[in-house]
């Protein structure tokens, strides 16, 4: 069945499978019928409070079923969902408020910092109290496919964050990329750790709702016993998790995941690269489970995907284009390259129905990256002879050392093979003679000692001599975005201060 919005899909499933599980978390669970009842009730409350179709509504994140109901109620009312991470800084909050002209805020934690004139509603009260509310008929049309569904503000790995505007048809197309990419089957129950305030987790949640499946939301892997209790309670068949959380789950749970090999159909890992050691550990524990890595952005979601359990020997590979995605490799003038390779890479350009409507109220910025239906990235990559796409990193991250282009991820992958290293990052330091030189930052495992000569020998085994780091620094932490992406730009800024 074809749907024009996620809201329309939930409405349809509330009629065709009213008692099927839709949303759950550690405290509560709702069927499709119960979710639709709460959506209509909350939507009516919002409209009666003065919300108008097209209004932007800030919704403060909580990783639970009520957050999902709140965002769907906003969209059902014909309004625009704008997620806001919990504990957002005052500066970011004020900027998003100003840029969106939002008049409504759903949440609790950040409400006291809002200016006068913004209507504040508590998400929990709005969505849970609907259970006891008098049934209110829904007399409003579901949103059309070309209406704006959401504005997702980037966390900004480089520079100022941007508002990415997505229509309902964009949302559906990304969800389809996920559905077909992971070979999602009916009856799927997916546990999602990735926060719904960011594109990765949000889109996996949408994908399951589009197919009438169930979503189990979990906030943290720290309480590992509670995680496995939820997996057992809802017979979870799939897991979506960011690499940093996956690493912690493996550390805390030992080999316990192996006991779920017959239950877990697939796992999705994204928002940042998963280290090779964790990939190998997952393959060992779950040999029959599909293990997905993917390439995409908030602007063009889930454009490429690979099951690294089926394709274990393709280091740096991000798979093949998904169902709604077309990818080409272009040169610096945006001309398609007839044949790209590891020796002759180009820039990744992508188009498809999932491509954003544009950057919110920034037409010139939109025009600078979108042309002829393609979004042109600064990500360098190439296709191999089998049609697999390989990602070499962002052009901004590439280190130009005397004319030699050095991919920092090549050095990082080699460094991670050195046993004492828990995490690492490579960034460019300006230098008079060569222009830039690579500097390697290491975060060591607890109790491990660092031997420079041993590490350099390990690096030299797979990295050309003219690409080896000129300096190695031991650090206690590395900078990441809210959803786990490594921020090499911050390291570069620190290296080149003054």
TrEMBL record:
Keywords associated with the record: Ligase
GO molecular function: long-chain fatty acid-CoA ligase activity; medium-chain fatty acid-CoA ligase activity
Record domain AMP-dependent synthetase/ligase: where: 14-360
CDD domains in alphabetical order: AFD_class_I
Catalytic activity, EC: 6.2.1.3
Family matches, as InterPro entries: AMP-bd_C, AMP-bd_C_sf, AMP-binding_CS, AMP-dep_synth/lig_dom, ANL_N_sf
Domain AMP-binding enzyme C-terminal: 410-485
Protein's name according to its UniProt entry: Long-chain-fatty-acid--CoA ligase
Source species of the chain: bioreactor metagenome
Record lineage: unclassified sequences, metagenomes, ecological metagenomes
